[in-house]
């Protein structure tokens, strides 16, 4: 079973109650970065038990693999409809570390696109490292440093497809959002990029920053073609204060 299939089995187990789903995880090494979940297998068991009460449905929209990492884009029906990115690190064939980012499903954006539709199959696997480097540079130069004059170096001006619920297709909507200032501060501000995962033409960046003054984690999934971003999905989640954390591992 591939690591992708193992994560599919683990997450689908939330819905099916499959007792073998937990066998994907090395309980003795499992490190949990979701601040709302307790450490290790105990926290995982408590989380699954709590979710089971909501009659959950789990739909894996797209899944990718980057060496020891698997990252998936998910649709969850718990007590409400949610969109999430799940990231797992594997060691010796077992999942040993987990990060995620979850957001309530929003209405379709101004271009009629949902947070989950669009391309799903990775291509151009020989360009994985090239695309990873392009997105790393994009996040640093555009999202963190705000060198917006370079936008057309990274974004396909003619056919940029946007799945973020607050933005429309095209480069102008992104430029406007990154330029929006409230009370002399940018409404959205990226401060640090923590990890960039890639498979072929799909690249996931994991960052932190501020949205309307709130400390948030930003998970951005990009589809790249000929060195430029042609499609984008995201989730934004507020990071709780440290006093509310149920483990000490940190969000990132």
Tell me what the structure shows:
The protein is of the alpha+beta class and 252 residues long. Helix content is 23%, strand content 37%. The protein is built from five helices and twelve strands. The chain has helices at residues 3-16, 40-52, 128-144, 151-154, 171-179, and strands spanning 31-32, 57-66, 69-77, 81-91, 94-104, 161-162, 181-182, 185-186, 188-199, 202-211, 214-225, 228-238. The strands form three sheets. It has a five-stranded mixed sheet with strand order 1-5-4-3-2, with helices on one face. Strands 6-12-11-10-9 form a five-stranded mixed sheet, covered by helices on one side. The radius of gyration is 18 Å and the shape is globular.
């Amino acid at each position: 079973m591939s690591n992708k299939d193992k994560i599919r089995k683990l997450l689908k187990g939330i819905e099916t109650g499959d007792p073998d789903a937990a066998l994907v995880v090395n309980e003795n090494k499992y490190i949990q970065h979701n601040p709302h979940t307790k450490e290790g297998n105990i926290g995982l068991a408590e989380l699954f038990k709590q979710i089971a009460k909501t009659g959950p449905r789990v739909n894996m929209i797209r899944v990718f693999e980057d060496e020891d990492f698997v990252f998936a884009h998910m649709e969850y029906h718990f007590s409400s409809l949610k969109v999430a990115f799940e990231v797992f690190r594997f060691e010796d064939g077992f999942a040993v570390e987990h990060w995620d980012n979850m957001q309530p499903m929003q209405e379709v954006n101004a271009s009629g696109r949902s947070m989950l539709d669009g391309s799903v199959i990775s291509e151009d696997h020989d360009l994985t490292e090239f695309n990873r480097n392009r997105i790393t540079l994009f996040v640093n130069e555009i999202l963190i440093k705000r060198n917006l004059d370079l936008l057309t170096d990274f974004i396909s001006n003619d056919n940029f497809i946007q799945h973020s619920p607050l933005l429309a297709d095209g480069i102008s909507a992104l430029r406007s959002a990154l330029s929006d200032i409230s009370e002399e501060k940018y409404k959205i501000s990226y401060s640090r990029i923590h990890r960039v995962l890639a498979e072929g033409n799909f690249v996931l960046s994991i960052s932190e920053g501020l949205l309307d003054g709130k400390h948030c984690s930003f998970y951005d999934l990009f589809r790249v073609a000929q060195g430029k971003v042609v499609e984008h999905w995201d989730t934004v989640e507020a990071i709780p204060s440290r006093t509310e954390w149920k483990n000490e591992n940190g969000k990132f």
